[in-house]
Amino acid sequence: MFVRTPLRLDFPTRSLPVTRKLLLVPVLATAALAVGVPAANSAREIKVDDNYFVRASGVPTVEVSKGTVVKWVWKGKSLHNVKATKGPVKFGSSSMTKGSYAKKMKRRGTYTIVCTVHGASDQKMMLEVS
Length: 130
Ligand SMILES: [Cu+2]
Description:
Distance between the termini: 77 Å
Bound molecules: copper (II) ion
CATH class of the domain at 43-129: Mainly Beta
CATH superfamily of the domain at 43-129: Cupredoxins -  blue copper proteins
Oligomer: single chain
Structural class: alpha/beta
Order of helices and strands: HEEEEEEEE
Number of helices: 1
CATH architecture of the domain at 43-129: Sandwich
Largest sheet: 4 strands, mixed
Strand order of the largest sheet: 2-1-4-6
Radius of gyration: 29 Å
CATH topology of the domain at 43-129: Immunoglobulin-like
Strand content: 25-35%
């Protein structure tokens, strides 16, 4: 049997309450802002061990981009420090046996970093900020 669904004309014509419409505005505004937010700055950890940075042999080079927070993390048992002896900015940690030292790299360039306790011939690394 064919049943024709009558077109309902008696549905409520009332629109959404005003409060509902107002709630939508901040939601849409937040979504629009999220699109333009730049990626968070990156971070990089570097091992400080007995007696080397990063790895036991050679002079390692670590490359990071400007704005990266470089964090040296003490892993060994001996006393070490982190000193930028050459580069656009001089910086450095105190001498410690444990803990960490973080530096946000704001200037591009090549940095020579040594542990002055053990000297450049024993504990040295290069940091390239591009
Ligand atoms: Cu050292």
